[in-house]
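Escalation from tier 1.

The customer reports that the assembly of two entities below gives different structure tokens on two consecutive runs. Tier 1 could not reproduce it. I'm attaching the input and our single run for tier 2 to review.
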Amino acid sequence: MIRVKKVSRPKEIPLTEKLYLVEIAKGLAVTMNHFLKNLTNPRSIPTIDYPEVKRPVPPRFRGRHRLTKRPDGTPKCVACYCCATACPAVCITIEAGEHPDPQIEKYPVRFDIDMLRCIYCGMCVDACPEDAIRMDTGWYTVPERNREDLVYTIDMLLSD
Amino acid sequence: MLIDLLIVIVKIAIMLAFVLGLVPVLVWAERKGAAFIQDRMGPAKADIFGLRLAGLFHPLADALKLLFKEDFVPEDAHPLFYRLAPVFAMAPVLLTFAVVPFGDTIEIFGRKVPLQVADLNVGILYVFAFSSLTVYGIILAGWASGNKFSLLGGLRSSAQMISYEISLGLSIIGVAMVFGSLKLSDIARAQGELLFGVIPKWGVVVQPLGFILFLVSVFAESARIPFDLPEGESEIVAGFHTEYGSFKFAMFFLAEYVHVVVASGLIATLYFGGWQIPYLYADGFHLFGKVLHLPFALVVIMQVLAFVVKVLFFCWFFIWVRWTIPRFRYDQVMRLGWKVLLPLALANIFITGSVLLLFGGAKPL
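Tier 1 run:
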């Protein structure tokens, strides 16, 4: 059995729209309104003038990593590998060395973060027992011209 | 003799400087205007010694970039026609402006100098001839590029331009009938008269339908949005200039904007009184029987400025329309051209002729 389904057809276009001219005049009025509004009041344009003006980052924004320091300026990190283990992107490479202070077992000789692999999940920060790594720089990874420059070393991470 | 030649050369130089000098300004106005219409900032970063001038240096940077790019010829392109096409696109558009008057006749060194490069008595025919020639540049570019998108763009432009050529021509015939001349300087001068003593006898007043037809046709003729099918970025990459780069592309780009200036000049001359300012005559303002006397030099300067202002307004109108209306579909363009504009243009000629015959305004051509 064939059933016929009634489909609503687009309604007849009124004559004023068929003539185009009236509608074009309306459209021109809309664009001119925008133009005049933005010409007389450029502040109303939502554009952020990026390199000069930066969008404010929220306080809990997860940005580029930094390594925190002890009062004497050495890294707080004890090279426990917790962050490297927690990292789902496997971007942290740590090499441990023996610390001269007998109170502290180890310190990182090498601490590299491959920013090209990092997914900014923040799990390294959660995993750290010493509060040695934080992502509170409030800034993104700056683009570089070659891959090697995007592997951040311990000196770069400590300098922030 | 020598001084006559010198005057002509000076006029040509002024004309070229005006038309070509307006192009970068138009490019800037297009980008900045588009940005403001779309609630954006537009170009604002290029600077010379920290001076930015709201992005006015961007066209300059673009021109420099295009000049220093590699000038290549694609492997499949026809080497000669590929190189010739940009010239064919550009030259006729520049030549069209020669017959557009930008001021009244003035006297220098005892000679009568019309402010117009060439005061031809077949001015309107000259305009048609040269505006039709521009299509050759585009077809050549489309065919010689050896690219299917270019070819499609070229085909579209040929079909479109031939369709709109006819309504363009027929719409101006009304103006020629009313003012009784094909000479653009005569048409501009005749528009200084008054209808019923108050309304300036501008083309748009006596030929309102003709004006709308001419406006639509001239948009189609210059291949600007909403009739930019030869380019049609979303459908055929960039149409006829897909394979063009460096300065050859710059010439197509230049031709497009010169076309806008020329079209604006023609609209101003044919329908908006050319260099005429209403009620302003050679000796000053005449209004309601009162006369405000002005020196002749000032009147001439004001009239040239009036022409420039009219041209600038219509250039802006081209930009304004571009950022308002989307592109027509190809079949819609053809239908509009053949089934709407052509009959209306014929009707306009018939109505104009009847009115002139009945009310005795007819002048022998």
